Every structure is written in structure tokens, then in C-alpha cells.
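Progress note, sequence design subtask.
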């Protein structure tokens, strides 16, 4: 593929649609994070003890960085950042579950080795609120697969080197990746961001999650990640709410139609 064809592709409606999708994900993620932060931090106890609040800056920086890196064509750097993001959300959730009554300084000292020795196996014994046993197993398997895939890009590996060689042969050097590469990255973003949301919702108080997901009339909050099956599972957990009782079938059908990843 010559450079003229690639330039034309980078200005095509299909490529621009993928860029818009990435922006929509970033906006939805940051909106959700900020809402959860502000609603959770209103409680002075949570403000001093909910560990995930202390890593919000890092979560937002990573999410913002991925978009900037992708726009420059730094796809492998995006994947490295996503590995960090997934790892950070998991670890923060683990500490919230393990030491909910201790303040930040004590949490950091107590889990110093855990924080300095990343281990995806922490997820095995972690209870995931809002998901039943089968759903938890499905979610944990999904996280393990994502983590394993992203690890191929953190260190030098034959996988990423061979991938880069094939891209070069096709004329897809840095900055000229095109629509397929961006579509592939977006698919990965959907899965990683959905996992981060589950860890986030598993870390903040139940009323915060319910207030965010359930509208005053019982409807479903309109945001990008309605398309996630795991977010849909969490949303369904709140069907017990009074304002939803008259529209349970409608909500169930709507969630089924929305799920895409």
C-alpha cells in the first residue's frame, strides 16, 4: 500500500468514525471516574480510606494518554499503558476489599510488596459485587486473557517484533497504521475500560453505583459502556429499585440489544 493510499485512508469517514469512538470512550470513562470520586469523597471516611480515590489521577492520566498516543500512531505504547491501567485498577480494588477500615498510609505500608510485585493472580480470590458466581468467573477469565495479551507488549517479545515486521512489509510504519489498526485498538480499549469500570464499581459504595447507572425514572444511564456485557450485568443488579419495577421487561430487552462487547 503506497503512502497516497494511506493518506486517503487516514482522511476517510471510516477512520474518523473510529477516532470519534475513541473520544467517546475517553469522555465516558472520565465522566464516570469523576462522578464516582465526587460522590464517594463526600463521606469523610471514604475520603481517608478508600484506596481507589488515591489513584484516580493515574487512571485519568492513563486514559487520556492512550488517546494521545493513538493519534500519533504509537499503538504498542497504548497497549503498555493499558496493561498498567488494568493492573492499577485491580490492585486498588484489592486493597479496598482487603483493608477497608485503614487509612491510606497504613494501606500502602501493609501492601507494599503487593504494590511492588504485580500479580494478576490476586483476582482469583477477589469477590466481585453485583455479579453472580458464573458471571464472576467469566469476568475474571476475561481479565486474565486481557492481561496476558497486554504483557506481550510490556517487554521485548517475538510477538510484537513479528507484528512490527509484518506491518512494515505492508507499508504500515509508525503513524500510518490506518483504520484496521485503530479499530483493533478500540476493540481492546472497550474490553480494558469495561474491566476498569467493574473494578471501580467494586470499590465505591453501592449507592454511588446505583445513582450513576439508574436514572430518576428507572431508566438506564446513557453512556458508551452500556454496550459492555459486564456493565449490563451490574446495571441489571439494580433492577430491585422501586422506580424500575414497572419496566423490568423493557429494561432487560434494552440491555440485550445494547450489548456489543
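Output:
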Amino acid at each position: 500500500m503506497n503512502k497516497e493510499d494511506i493518506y486517503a485512508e487516514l482522511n476517510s469517514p471510516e477512520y474518523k468514525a473510529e477516532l470519534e469512538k475513541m473520544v467517546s470512550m475517553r469522555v465516558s470513562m472520565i465522566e464516570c471516574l469523576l462522578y464516582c470520586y465526587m460522590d464517594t469523597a463526600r463521606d469523610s471516611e471514604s475520603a481517608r480510606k478508600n484506596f481507589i480515590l488515591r489513584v484516580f489521577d493515574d487512571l485519568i492520566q492513563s486514559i487520556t494518554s492512550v488517546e494521545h498516543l493513538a493519534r500519533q500512531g504509537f499503538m504498542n505504547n497504548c497497549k503498555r499503558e493499558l496493561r498498567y491501567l488494568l493492573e492499577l485498577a485491580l490492585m486498588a480494588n484489592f486493597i479496598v476489599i482487603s483493608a477497608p477500615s485503614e487509612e491510606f498510609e497504613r494501606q500502602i505500608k501493609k501492601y507494599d510488596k503487593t504494590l511492588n510485585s504485580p500479580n494478576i493472580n490476586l483476582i482469583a480470590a477477589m469477590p466481585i459485587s453485583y455479579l453472580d458466581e458464573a458471571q464472576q468467573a467469566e469476568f475474571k477469565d476475561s481479565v486474565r486473557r486481557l492481561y496476558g495479551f497486554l504483557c506481550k507488549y510490556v517487554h521485548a517479545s517475538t510477538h510484537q517484533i513479528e507484528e512490527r515486521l509484518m506491518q512494515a512489509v505492508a507499508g504500515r510504519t509508525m503513524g500510518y497504521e490506518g483504520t484496521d489498526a485503530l479499530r483493533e485498538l478500540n476493540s481492546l480499549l472497550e474490553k480494558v475500560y469495561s474491566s476498569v469500570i467493574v473494578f471501580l464499581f467494586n470499590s465505591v459504595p453501592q449507592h454511588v453505583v446505583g445513582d450513576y447507572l439508574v436514572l430518576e425514572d428507572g431508566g438506564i444511564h446513557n453512556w458508551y459502556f452500556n454496550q459492555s456485557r459486564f456493565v449490563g450485568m451490574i446495571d441489571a443488579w439494580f433492577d430491585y429499585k422501586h422506580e424500575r419495577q414497572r419496566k423490568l421487561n423493557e429494561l432487560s430487552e434494552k440491555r440485550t440489544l445494547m450489548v456489543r462487547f
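The mean pLDDT is 92. Work on this subtask will continue into the next period as scheduled.
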